[in-house]
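Worked example

This section walks through a single chain of length 150. The input is the sequence exactly as stored; nothing has been trimmed or padded.
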Amino acid sequence: MGIYYTIAAVFLGMQLAAGENLSTANPDFIQLQKALEKHNFIVKLAPPPVRGAYGLFDSKTRIIWIHPLVFDLGIARPTLIHEAVHAAQLCHGGKTVKALNLGIEPPAMTRRFFMNYEGFSRQIEAEAYTVQVQPDGLDLVISLLQKYCP
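Given that input, the structure is written out below as C-alpha cells.
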C-alpha cells in the first residue's frame, strides 16, 4: 500500500470555513474533484481507511478519500484542497511525493497542525496546510495540478 497523507485538523478547517455549508461547498468541491479526475486521481466520498482522518491520499493507488462528515462540518473545500496538494506533490515527484517548494510562508495558525510531523513529512504537510488556507487556494491547487500532472 502506498504512503498515506492525512488531514485530521477539524479545528483549523472550522476556523477557515466558518459558515460554509454543503450548498456553498459543492461548486468548488466539484470543480476540484473534476480537475483531480482529469489527472487520473480518484476521489471517493467515503470514510478514509485511517481512523480519525477527514481526508486521505494514497500515493500508490492515486485515491483520495474524503469523509462525508466534512460537508456537515463545513470543511469540505479545505480538506479536498489539502489532499489535492499531495496529488500535485506526487505528480511533481513522479512515483513518490516531492515538495513543491512554493515559497509561501505557512501562516502561524497552521503551524500547530504540521509541527508534529518530522523531516520530509513536515515539509509536505506544511505545503498542504499552507495552500488550503490561502484565499485563492482552489485556483492555486488547480494550477499546481495543471503544472505538474500529465
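What to look for: The longest helix spans residues 76-93.
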